[in-house]
Write a structure and sequence with these properties.
This protein is an alpha/beta fold and about 325 residues long. It is about 45% helix and about 15% strand. Strands 3-2-1-4-7-9-10 form a seven-stranded mixed β-sheet, with helices on both faces. A three-stranded antiparallel β-sheet has the order 5-6-8, with helices on one face. Helix 2 runs antiparallel to helix 5. The radius of gyration is 20 Å and the shape is globular. The structure holds ribulose-1,5-diphosphate (RUB). The site of ribulose-1,5-diphosphate (RUB) has 18 residues, from helix 2, helix 6 and strand 6.
C-alpha cells in the first residue's frame, strides 16, 4: 500500500524547506512516522508493516542530505521494531518512540538554553547566523537574564533565514540589528560571543552548519571572540566515526540569482552550496543537553551517550539502503 498524504506532505515540506532547521526537520520526520503507523491500512502482519515503515523512513531520509538529525530521528523511531513479534506491538512501538523523540528533543532544547545562557556574561553583544531555533532559545534565555543587550543577525544569503531569526528574537523582545553576511568581519570588534546551531557534528568535533558559518567563525577567531554551537545530541553523526564524510547539499541556482538573469547570461555557472564545515579549532564549546563540551569531546556523545559502537554503525553505513537491517 502507498504512503498516506500526511507523510507525503511532510516529506515534500522538508524538501522544499517549508519545514527547515535540523531540529524541526527531525521532529517532523518523527511525526510523519507516527502518522504513517497510525494510518497504516495494509495487512496486519509485522513483516508487511515493517516494509511499509521502512519505505516511509527512506522517503523522509531522502528529502535533504546534510542534517544528520533526520536519519538519526528515523532510526530512533524505527529501531525498536527490531524484535517485535506482532503487528499491534509494532505499531505501538513506532507511535511511542515518535512521541518520545519529540518530547526529548523539546526538553533538550530547553536544557541547552539553560546551559548556554550561563556561558554568556552580563551585558554582552551576540552575533548569530542563519536561523537556528536552538541558538535563538539560548540567546532569548540569556536576554531574559540580562546577559544579552544586542544581537547582530546576518541576513544569511541566499535563502534569507536571518529574517526568521529576526522575527523570533523580536518576539522575545531581544534588540536585533540586521546585517548583511558581508558585514560580519567589520562588526566583529563589537561582538562578545557568536552563537550558532548545527546540522551535523562529526566525531572529531567539526560542525556542519549553514553556509557562511565557517567564515563567521574565522572572523571570530581572528578577533578573539568566543564561538558557541548549540546542538542537541541527535545532531552528532555516528557515521563519521567510521570515516564517512558529511554530504553537503547543493540547491537550485535560482535561490542565488533570478531565472531571467540566468537566461540572459547563458553559460554562467552558479553554485549554491548550502552548508559548510567549521573545524573544531574554531569552536570554543558545543552546548548540548548533556552539558557544555569542547568540540574534541564529541566522540563521547556518540559512544557514551548515544551508545553507538563500531559494530552497530556497520549497518548504518548506507542508512537508506540498510534501513531494513537496522530494524530487522
Ligand atoms: C538551517 C541551519 C541551522 C541548523 C540548526 O539550515 O543551518 O543553523 O539546522 O537549526 P536550513 P536548529 O535552513 O537549510 O534547514 O537549531 O533549529 O535545529
Amino acid at each position: 500500500m502507498g504512503l498516506p498524504n500526511s507523510v507525503l506532505q511532510i516529506a515534500s515540506g522538508i524538501k522544499t524547506m517549508k519545514i527547515r532547521g535540523a531540529g524541526r526537520i527531525a521532529r517532523s520526520a518523527a511525526e510523519a512516522l507516527k502518522y504513517a503507523a497510525l494510518e497504516y491500512g495494509g495487512v496486519r502482519e509485522v513483516s508487511e508493516f515493517k516494509k511499509y515503515m521502512v519505505e516511509a523512513g527512506k522517503l523522509l531520509i531522502s528529502t535533504r542530505p546534510t542534517a544528520v538529525s533526520l536519519p538519526n530521528a528515523v532510526i530512533f523511531v524505527l529501531r525498536n521494531l527490531r524484535g517485535v513479534s506482532n503487528y499491534e506491538e509494532a505499531r505501538e512501538s513506532v507511535v511511542k518512540a515518535a512521541d518520545a523523540f519529540i518530547k526529548n528533543s523539546e526538553e533538550a532544547v530547553k536544557r541547552i538554553s539553560e546551559y548556554g545562557a550561563k556561558r554568556i556574561k552580563e551585558g554582552s553583544v551576540v552575533l548569530t547566523h542563519c536561523h537556528s531555533s536552538t541558538a535563538v532559545e539560548v540567546i532569548a534565555r540569556a536576554y531574559s537574564e540580562g546577559r544579552v543587550v544586542k544581537v547582530y543577525n546576518t541576513e544569511t544569503r541566499p535563502f534569507l533565514q536571518g529574517r526568521i531569526t529576526f522575527t523570533h528574537l523580536r518576539k522575545y523582545g531581544v534588540p536585533v540589528v540586521q546585517i548583511p553576511d558581508s558585514a560580519v568581519r567589520y562588526i566583529m570588534h563589537e561582538v562578545d560571543y557568536v552563537v550558532v546551531g548545527a546540522d551535523t557534528i562529526t566525531s572529531n568535533g567539526a560542525v556542519v552548519n549553514k553556509i557562511g558559518t565557517s567564515q563567521v567563525a574565522l572572523a571570530a577567531k581572528e578577533a578573539r571572540v568566543r564561538v558557541y554551537v548549540a546542538a542537541e545530541s541527535y545532531k552528532f553523526s555516528p557515521l563519521t566515526l567510521i570515516g564517512e564524510l558529511v554530504k553537503i547539499e547543493y540547491r537550485d541556482p535560482e535561490e542565488v540569482v533570478p531565472r531571467d538573469w540566468l537566461d540572459k547570461h547563458p553559460g554562467v555557472r552558479v553554485l549554491n552550496p548550502v552548508f559548510d564545515v567549521t573545524p573544531p579549532d574554531y569552536i570554543d564549546a558545543i552546548i548540548t543537553e548533556y552539558g557544555v563540551l569542547p568540540p574534541q569531546a564529541s566522540i563521547l556523545i556518540l559512544i557514551d551517550k548515544l551508545g553507538w559502537t563500531l559494530e552497530s554503525i556497520k549497518y548504518s553505513e548506507n542508512i537508506v539502503e540498510n534501513l531494513e537491517k537496522i530494524i530487522e
